């Protein structure tokens, strides 16, 4: 899985083909979409022209499709829209603990992977308790957990659980959705020192921590800027300074309560 990919949340279906084409031109090879984003068709159109072996495509099962049979149907629908015979990574978008169907959903994921329809299966927004249950009840460890993660929400406990169980941490909203974080003085001072943008410094912090990141932008210059983070390095001191920014601030919902 490429360590840096392109996220397409909030990109309308009719714009997705051109925005993703821009990202492909800039060198991205990993695209992160979801059934809920309503743009799998546009993404499918953009990737149809690229050598399949060079692409890594992720999509996610939406909350209303939890359950064994519903999952199989939802997967077929997503694969059809993306025009893919084999998907690289399929994620359960949210655990929805109050509905209590994520274990059955996971069993369908395991089956789809056995059938060769998906290369890797994972989850999103799972807390340690949800991960532990999947592992205990099915014996199959998710390859990836995609969670909200940025310098204001560093998820230390979850990252430690991932490291212990061999789950890859993937950061959504890696730039904190481009808000206050990108004008935080700690970030902008480091950026000035390296002659880089604040967004590049934050993405580089993720990369050095070992996170997979999927920044989103529809602006061509930013799309290019966000992938240009592999030719500079933050010092130990700079990494430590960025680590002091953690304040447990979620932008999105708490997965334990989102149903
Ligand atoms: P992000 O942290 O990637 O921020 C994107 C926003 O930051 C842009 O809309 C823009 O306003 C700004 N931005 C981007 N590049 C910039 C730059 N170089 N300089 C200044 N500002 C810049 O936020 P996101 O879109 O929420 O997250 C990225 C991806 O993560 C999504 O597109 C989606 O694929 C995924 N995601 C997944 C979940 C989930 O529940 N699994 C939830 C949210 C997002």
TrEMBL record:
Residues 4-245 form the NADP-dependent oxidoreductase domain. Keywords: NADP, Oxidoreductase. Coiled coil: none annotated. Pfam families: Aldo_ket_red. The keyword Transcription regulation does not apply. Belongs to the aldo/keto reductase family. This is Aldo/keto reductase. The lineage of its organism: Bacteria, Bacillati, Actinomycetota, Actinomycetes, Pseudonocardiales.
